[in-house]
Amino acid sequence: MQKSKNRNVFKRIFSIRGVGQVVTVTIGLIMLCVVFALLNPNFTSPRNTNNLLRQIAPFLIVGIAQSYVLITGNIDLSIGSVLGMSCMISATLMTKGMDPWTASVITLGCCLLVGVLNGVLVANCKLPPFIATLGTMTIARGIAQIVNNNMNTDSIGEAAKGFRDFFYYGKFMGIYSTVIIAIVLWIIFDFILSKTRTGSHIYAVGSNIEAAKLSGVNVSSVVIKVYMVSAFCSGIAGLITCATGGLGTMDSGNSFELYAVAASVIGGVSTLGGQGILLGTVVGASVWGVMQNGLSLAGAPVALRNIIIGIIVVISVLADVVVRSGKWNRKTKEVSATDAPQIEKRN
Length: 347
Description:
Elements: H1 2-15, H2 19-39, H3 46-71, H4 79-95, H5 100-124, H6 129-146, H7 161-169, E1 171-172, E2 175-176, H8 177-195, H9 197-207, H10 209-214, H11 219-245, H12 256-266, H13 278-297, H14 302-330
Antiparallel strand pairs: 1-2
Helix pairs in contact: 2-13, 3-8, 3-11, 3-12, 3-13, 4-5, 4-6, 4-11, 5-6, 5-11, 7-11, 8-9, 9-11, 12-13, 12-14
């Protein structure tokens, strides 16, 4: 009887969308850690563990950004450029004498405007998300370059020490502030995605946009919101980057679009929309960070690291496409008005 109950519990857990992928990837993550620990004992040293966690944190933050967008069936290619824009705007304002916290608020406001623009272009203007965010990617990178007359900034100075401690160097109970920020953001956005009506609508839009419309979901509003979340998280990652180096660099955020997609899809967020959980994004970001850190300690060339990680991303997306296509082939019946799912209303 007890065994039957246990089986039912496990069955319910694994029936939650994305959990199976999370378990599989977690096992792979543990195996990676064991392999790298055997290759280099320094991998498990307290110093490297702290650095690894701090290295994973920005990957997790941009992974949250991309996960929200991917679940709706869209994509955001502007993440890295918004990160760079955030780094440059905040650093430029601080070097001009502005209070660091005022500069941070203004910077995040600018990032949110990019998110709104992305959402409007995709939801209201019906531009393909790839094209819309490719355009805003270029615009945001241009802003990052022009904001300080096409030059990197000087040091943000001692006046920004509190800012740098808050976003990077500070510790609370032995944990770096960067890691704490990532954890807090994850808790907030995971709650929204899994426990609120907005989260249900996000999944509904990604699962079947026509059925979502028939169920009363404001699709345009949902799409704009997820792009705002993406831009906000990218802005936070930009502030962390600024605090890390103590200055603004115009190439900040290069390749972070890839990091964001990798953290999401490795953790089980579907590129086809409607599937994935943010717990998987944590695991995906950890895999990415462990691969970067472990291969570096193992002495692998940068080119080899990029090839290996790129292969993992391609395999993850390919597996998702194969599995989801198989499901679709078994479910060819069109969704009619009477078949439209009722979106669960959560408080």
